[in-house]
Amino acid sequence: MKEAAMGGQPGGRKGRGRPPGGTEEKHRSERRRPADSVAGALSRAAVRPLPRGELFLGRDFLDRFFGAEGGYAGQLAAAARSLGLSLVGIDLNGGCRRHFFDSGIDCLDGYYLAGYLNGPFSRLVERHGFFNAMLSVHKDRRLFGGICERLIREVERLARSARSKGLRAVALADDIAGKGGLFFSLEYFLDVLWPVYRLAAQVLKGQGLQPFFHSDGDTRKIIEPLIEAGYACIHPVDGQAGLDIYDLRAEFGDRVAFMGHIDIMGWDEGRIGEEIERAEGSFGNGGLILGSSCGITLATAGRLKSLYPSWRSPYRL
Asked: Poorest-confidence range of 16-20, 227-231, 293-297, 298-302?
């Protein structure tokens, strides 16, 4: 097979040539898989055009526009085709994970699959509310510590299953910052959260998965620690919080990739077009997966055309 792909004629038989649809064409097609462009961007190889990806594809969006597809995986595949995605994000929390793992995923073959799992702070907020979560963080670390321990056990179980289902990355999704920066001190982050993040990254890498990290807000202070912890990609580069993708590329671009950047809710069509063109020129050696900075939901569906020209809504929004 390898010789045939290189154009050889095994066994010295004449006239076999390279027929249309043969081995070389198959390999050439495989090299053009959407997942390959994402892998190239993550390794900072030259990729043109830049891959597009969305970590968060909301169930409200999927159910509204792709409800007739066969289950969660089928909805994701239909959305990926409609938007022209290379990377497809998969919700690995609760029921969504069960639906995905119990379904056939052949429809997602060729895409770069990146799951996401809520991190410890997000879980604390979900269970106790933001105010009580902040009180717990600063006054009683025992509750937070228990959540962190359970998270690591879950990551250990999840990593093996995720790899077997074709996932290539898992993002720890933990909204720990706002427009003014971290919700707590950098010292607290390094002392309490960073060891948990690092262990989660080690577990994922041990199963051959790329660790991604997500948080909205101004996360600049923790990018260096995240790199040291082993994270390969930072999402979403929140421009509304003052982050600038080109400043980040200059400082960190040879050590970590970024994903997102396009503010489809805050920028007009002209600005989005300019930013896409600039990003395509500035990230000629990879390092960026273009996508929205807010995720895709029903609320954002009406603003997708500038970033995803192939998007055609089958329903009036």
From this structure: 16-20
